[in-house]
Write a structure and sequence with these properties.
This protein is α/β, with parallel strands linked by helices. The protein is about 25% helix and about 20% strand.
Length: about 260
């Protein structure tokens, strides 16, 4: 962790005051705001030039906080969270009361994940709440993987940039809609199709469902994700697998990983 403790505490204070903080995750740098502050969340859209109908991801400090932010956690979602958090997996679940509609694009679902980066986790712990954050760039532009990229793209529109060094993965998180009986992969990312199938104990299916995100590109800094490669992937035991015959819906016309959602 390259950021100093004093910087992390200062960044947490900026969030509490309704400001915007750019911070590193294992995927890309995010543009964060207090997830429970509608005005701060709305400012993210203004700075990015992002349509307000596009939902954002709420970052949590640990899986134990999941029930505080969503209305219901199906068994499938809990299993995926236990296996891939912290890490590049985002779960879409029913919105809890503390999540403002500004953060969900007006939807009754919310996207949540736990980042796998020491600076991000330290910031979330110091802040003591959820942080809504898309990637820290203008809408449709390249996702930033260093603090320098953030400064060059957004300048003084960001109240505080927390420098945690280069991001390790450089590609956005996989997004899975876990609200239904059968999970739907809305966007490919750091967790692969094979990773999901191995944990859920079933094969994926194709479905014509719109992807979560927009076209864009990413900076080519991808490295192997801890615990997600074929060589290190852990097989799920029969006790942890879902019933036989289950499936994963997989969008048949994915857009490329987006620089505007992480």
């Amino acid at each position: 962790m390259t950021a100093r403790i004093s910087d992390i505490e200062m960044a947490a204070g900026v969030l509490r005051a309704g400001g915007l903080v750019a911070f590193p995750t294992e995927t890309v740098y995010g543009l964060g705001a207090n997830a429970e502050d509608p005005a701060a969340v709305s400012r993210i859209f203004q700075v990015k030039g992002r349509p307000s109908s596009h939902p954002l991801i709420v970052h949590l400090g640990g899986g134990e906080h999941l029930d505080d932010w969503v209305e219901d956690v199906p068994a499938t979602a809990r299993l995926l969270a236990e296996r891939f958090w912290p890490g590049p997996l985002t779960l879409v679940l029913r919105r809890g009361r503390r999540v403002p509609l500004e953060a969900t694009g007006g939807l009754e679902t919310v996207a949540v994940r736990v980042p796998d980066h020491p600076v991000a986790l330290a910031l979330l712990a110091a802040f003591g709440g959820g942080v809504t954050a898309p990637s820290a760039n203008r809408f449709g532009q390249v996702s930033p993987t260093t603090a320098h990229h953030v400064g060059a793209e957004l300048g003084d529109a960001v109240d505080f940039v927390l420098d945690g060094g280069p991001c390790e993965v450089g590609i956005e998180s996989t997004i899975v809609d876990a609200t239904g009986e059968i999970p739907s992969v809305l966007r490919p990312g750091g967790v692969t199709r094979e990773d999901l199938e191995a944990v859920l104990g079933c094969r994926s299916r194709s479905t014509r469902r719109a992807a979560f995100g927009c076209r864009g590109s990413i900076r080519p800094t991808m490295r192997r994700v801890r615990g997600s490669s074929s060589s290190s992937r852990r097989r799920s035991s029969p006790k942890r697998s879902l019933r036989r015959g289950c499936g994963i819906r997989w969008a048949s016309f994915f857009l490329p990983p987006s620089p505007t959602l992480r």
